[in-house]
Amino acid sequence: MVEASGLKPGVVVMLEGELHSVATAGYHAGGGQQGSAVFARVKNLKTGHIRELRLHPSDRLEEIALDHKEMEYLYTDGVAFYFMDPDTFEQISLPSEIIGAYEKFLQPNMRIPVALYEGEPVNIAFPQAIELSVVSAPPGVHEHATSTFKPATLENGMEVLVPQFIKEGDTVRIEVASGKYVERIRRETRKP
Q: Could you give a GO molecular-function term held by this entry (predicted)?
């Protein structure tokens, strides 16, 4: 059990018999006749529906510990996304509502931690940032300018704004939540 005042983003709780992941949680001290409260936004892991809750700080919620298993992404049929356990070759599917915006970042054979509750898949634990190769980028206006950005197309077909020095073939790190450029990945080159 976890008290409402201890809720943090990423915590999974059981509400009305369904798993919910805490997206945001904030404590409001209150004043006058209004008591203190915890405001939380939670996402239903089955339906993807987001709810807003107002809880008393001492309210207790059932915290659920999920198991994580690294699985390999195989394909999607438009309705579900299919993953395979690389150890047992067992395949599982997750509905597209659960994958949501992460869909554009999934690539075949990519290994992703899948969250399991009592052996059943409920969500994916997608990384904060992902590395992708630049497929096309126009030449930079000023080679060393970093304050201006230009559009670049990545290997997954996504278009992002990158600094002027990024060129085709570079690998960049993209923040998954916002879809924005974070940094260029430098590959170590050794001289013989």
A: translation elongation factor activity
Whether the model pTM is above 0.70? no
Pairing of strands 12-15, 2-3: unpaired
Which of left, alpha, beta for 88 (phi over 0: left; psi -120 to 50: alpha)? alpha
- Cβ-in-10-Å burial (0-12, 13-18, 19+) of 13 comes to buried
**Cα gap 187→67, rounded to integer Å:** 33
Under 8 Å CB-to-CB from 144, ≥6 apart: which residues? Answer: 164, 165
Q: SS3 for 6?
A: helix
pLDDT, tens digit, for every residue of 38-65? Answer: 899 998 887 778 899 988 888 899 988 8
Taking phi over 0 as left and psi of -120 to 50 as alpha, with beta for the rest, 56 belongs to beta
Could you tell me the residue ranges of all domains in the chain?
Answer: 2-63, 67-124, 129-185
Side chain identity at residue 168, one-letter code: E
